[in-house]
Design brief:
Layout (H helix, E strand, L loop, with lengths): L21 E5 L4 H12 L3 E6 L6 H11 L4 E5 L9 H4 L4 E4 L6 H6 L1 H22 L5 E6 L23 H20 L4 E6 L1 E3 L11 H10 L3 E5 L5 E6 H13 L1 H4 L3 E4 L6 E3 H12 L4 E5 L8 E2 L4 H7 L7 H14 L2
Helix pairs in contact: 1-2, 1-8, 5-6, 7-10, 7-12
């Protein structure tokens, strides 16, 4: 593992081309936001990050991106719940990438009102701001596989034709947002796209046991902290490196004539599926540290098996993951070791 890998360093990379297009990324200081921003900057975009910096690690991520790309990055401290403030930030943008959200099922069960306000109302606020002030801009929404519900007894890859079945307040709030984004393409002729994302991992992720579990395992094992496994640990997910997802965001925007009004399931696909215990064992082997964990009851709304069928994205867009999980995990560990 090379701790000096290019995506780990804090040095600004030389960029010879001048920035052309502009993109607003909500939740831009989050894990997905900074990965997407770094990718888009390399493709010639100027990025504006809109974030309320409420999640741990966002200030570190923001500092990393601004240090690396000071001339390609702008920052706005704002909240998507503040509808009146959004208009000025969506104007003059060539695209909108809406990543801001309340991200944990467990938090939604404790505080459903905030979960709804951020995920459902916040997304509607963004849609309305763009509809009124920047109607034709591509609007890409980060949805979730949780809109499909528990998928009891499922053991096959999930396609976009799978009926939605919201389970948990989080599933409901993200599902409502998902359907609003889809419908604004139909009712208001907007350039909206929905990406139903599976488990994403990678550098700049400060995971917790509630969300971002691969990074949570990595950080915990490196620091020799105990972990709790909810359920029996055989839950299966398909795992996607954030750099592959960032590449898809760019493709979706560039091919908006194809992607407008569409929904895509996005994940690592069957080739990158793992269960929790397999990932824990692999992290232990790669770090040379013994994982410490205990088991607890299953959590509400957890899926025993979820793997994305990514065939539609491959057929429509020519996209598929380039970074297999074994490589991605090694590089996530290298990053985590560099920021200890």
């Amino acid at each position: 593992m090379d701790p000096n890998a290019r995506y780990v360093t804090d040095k600004e990379e030389p960029l010879t081309d001048r920035p052309g297009r502009r993109i607003l990324i909500t939740g831009g200081a989050g894990f997905l936001g900074v990965n997407a921003a770094a990718h888009l900057i390399k493709e010639g975009w100027h990025v504006t990050l809109l974030d309320n910096l409420s999640r741990p690690g966002t200030e570190r991520n923001l500092k990393w991106l601004i240090t690396r790309y000071p001339n390609r990055t702008s920052f706005v401290k704002e909240d998507v719940r503040n509808a009146d403030a959004l208009a000025e930030h969506v104007r003059d943008q060539d695209a909108i990438l809406h990543l801001a959200g309340q991200v944990a099922v467990t938090t939604s069960l404790v505080d459903p009102n905030t979960d709804f306000d951020v995920n459902a109302r916040g997304t509607l606020n963004m849609l309305e701001a763009v509809r009124v002030h920047n109607h034709d801009a591509p609007f890409v929404f980060s949805s979730t596989n949780k809109v499909y519900g528990k998928l009891d007894h499922s053991s096959s890859a999930c396609t976009e034709t799978q009926p939605i079945d919201f389970h948990s307040p989080y599933g409901c709030s993200k599902g409502a947002a998902d359907q609003y984004v889809r419908d604004y393409a139909r009712c208001f002729a907007m350039n909206t796209v929905v990406l139903r994302q599976s488990c994403i991992y990678g550098a700049h992720q400060y995971g917790t046991e509630d969300q971002g579990w691969v990074a949570h395992f990595v950080h915990s094992i490196l620091k020799e902290r105990g972990m709790t496994i909810y359920g029996d640990g055989t839950q299966v997910r398909d795992l996607l490196d954030a750099r592959d997802l960032s590449a898809l965001y760019a493709i979706v925007i560039d091919k908006i004539a194809i992607t407008r009004g569409e929904i895509y399931n996005v994940g690592g696909g069957p080739e990158n599926q793992r269960n929790l215990l397999e990932v824990i064992d692999q992290v232990g082997e790669l770090t040379g540290k013994k994982p410490h964990f205990k088991f607890a009851d299953w959590r509400e709304g957890d899926q025993a098996f979820y793997v994305s069928d990514i065939g539609k994205a491959k057929r429509d867009l020519g996209w598929e993951p380039k970074i297999d999980f074994d490589r991605g995990l090694r590089e996530l560990i290298a990053w985590a070791e560099s920021v200890k």
